[in-house]
Amino acid sequence: MAIPATKAELLSYCKRQLGAPVVEINVDDDQADDILDDALQFFQEYHYDGTIRTYLKHQITQSEIDNQKTNSNVTSSTSGGSDNGATTWLEGNNYIELPESVISVVRVLDISSSTNNMFDLRYQLRLNDLYDLNSTSILHYEMVQQHLGMLDDMLVGSAFMRHSKHGNRLYIDMDWTANIAASEYIVIEAIRKMDPTTYTDIYNDVWLKKYTTAKLKLQWGQNLIKFDGIALPGGITLNGRQLVDDAKEEITQLEEELRLGYELPVMDMIG
Question: Which contacts qualify for 114-123: CB closer than 8 Å, 24 or more apart?
Answer without folding.
Answer: 121/148, 122/148
